[in-house]
Amino acid sequence: MTPFSVIRSAMIPSAGPIEDFDIVRLDGRSFLVCVDTANGVFLWDPSEDRWSKHRLDMPFHEDSGIDGIEVLAIGAVVHDGRIVVGGGADHQPFAQWDLESGAVRVFVDESQAGLGQSLGMELDGRPMLVGGDSSTSPRVRVWDVERRELHAELCEHHFDGLGALTSGMLKDRPVLVSGSWDGSAVVWDLRERRSLVEFGRYVGGLQGIGLVLVGGRPRVVAASRDDVVLGDPETGEWGEPLAWPDDIAELIEEDEFDDFITCMDAGLVDGRPVAVTGTGEGRLYVWDLEDGSVLGEPLAGHNGDVSAVRLTELDGRTAVITAGRDGRLLMWSLDSV
C-alpha cells in the first residue's frame, strides 16, 4: 500500500532551490511563503498555481555598514489582513517584514546570533513569529507581531544551534518545542515564559520536532538523522526509536544506509497520529505513531534533499507539502492512510 500520492506540484521560478517555507491562511485560502538558497522570497498560491517574488528591504540600520540581506529560514503569519514574515540565516539575526511592501517592521539586533529556525504561530489569538539561533548556546525568541516587541526570550537549555521548532497545546497550555543539533529538546510554556521539561540529548542531533496525541496522551515526536522517536513531555524521557522496515534496518546495522532524515513533521490524519520524514535522497516516509511502523513504501518525490515538510489542512482534507532542493513543491494526499 502507498499511503499518499501527489495531487499538485509547482516549480519555484528561481535558479536557487527551496530552502524553507511556511503556510498562512488569508481570506479563506492557503498560501506558501518560500525562501530559496539565493535569499529570494516567493509567495505561492496553490489554488491558482501562481507565484510572486517579493523584495525585502535592508533589515540592518543605516549605520551598520552592512549592505547585504540573507534569509534562509522563514516564518509567516497574517496581521490586519497582510502577510508578515520573519526570518534570517546563519549570518543574519532575525528581522521582520511586511511581505507585500517589503518594509521592515523589526530591524536586526546585531547583538543577537544568526538564525537557524523560524515559524509563525498564534498565542491566545495573537500572531507571533518565533526565531531560534543557529549558534552555540542558542536562544529562542518569540515576537509579538502586533506590538512589534519581544514577547519571550528562552534560553539556557541547548548547547548547539536549533534544528527544529514546533508549537502546539499541552493540555491547556500553549507551548513551543525546540530541538537542537546537539540532540536536546525543550518544551516551553509560552504564557509563563519558562521551560516545562527538558529532554536528554538524543544521539544524532534533531532534524525535526512535533507534538501530537498518541494513544490519547501527548507525545513529543523527534527525528534524528537515523531515527524517529517519541518522548514523554511529563518526564522528559525518550522511548525506543521506531522500527524501520527490515531491509533498511539491515542496511543501518551494516552501516550501509546513507539516506539520512533531513526534516520531519507530525500530526493527526483522521484521528490517526503520523509523522512524515523527508530524506537526503528525496524519499518520503509516513510513520504510524500508534504501532511504530512505516506505512507502505517510500516515495521518491524529489531529486535530491527534501528540505522541508508540513502537514496542513487544504480544501477540507489533510495534506502534506514538501519542498526540495530540486526547486519543486509537492502536495501529497493522505486520504488512504
From TrEMBL:
The record's annotation in PROSITE patterns points to:
WD_REPEATS_2, WD_REPEATS_REGION
- The WD repeats lie at 176-198, 299-337
Pfam families found in the cross-reference section: WD40 (PF00400)
Keywords, sorted A to Z = WD repeat
Q: What is this protein called?
A: WD40 repeat domain-containing protein
Q: Which organism is it from?
A: Nonomuraea guangzhouensis
